[in-house]
Write a structure and sequence with these properties.
By secondary structure, this protein is mainly β. Helices cover about 0% and strands about 45% of the residues.
Length: about 120
């Protein structure tokens, strides 16, 4: 059973930065497309970024809300996908989730809370 684990969340001031890693103990993330989603209270879950598998072209996607501020990347040696979040805004406050879509199922991490507040 594939397991995803997000971490790196916390409280930051507006304009600050956080880096969220997504790891998969016992699995190899390099063979899968990985997405980042977020969900704020009372709002639907929003897809904000994704990266294709390393054996494809590794292309990336960003939603308009985060484009230019967030960067998704892979470190296959560490079996980790990162979401680097810069210039954080209060509206970025949400629980952030890592997602893996396989041919048979979607897998989700437990989520990590990001709070942007002064």
């Amino acid at each position: 059973q594939l397991q995803l684990v997000e971490s790196g969340g916390g409280l930051v001031q507006p304009g600050g930065s956080l880096r969220l890693p997504c790891a998969a103990p016992g699995s190899s993330l390099e063979y899968y497309a990985i997405g980042w989603f977020r969900q704020a209270p009372g709002k639907e879950r929003e897809g904000i970024s994704c990266i294709s598998s390393s054996d494809s072209d590794g292309s990336t996607y960003y939603s308009d809300s985060v484009k230019g501020r967030f960067t998704i990347s892979r470190d296959d040696a560490k079996n980790t996908v990162y979401l680097q979040m810069n210039n954080l805004k209060p509206e970025d406050t949400a629980v952030y989730y890592c997602n893996l879509k396989s041919q048979v199922a979607d897998y989700w991490g437990q989520g990590t809370q990001v709070t942007v507040s002064s």
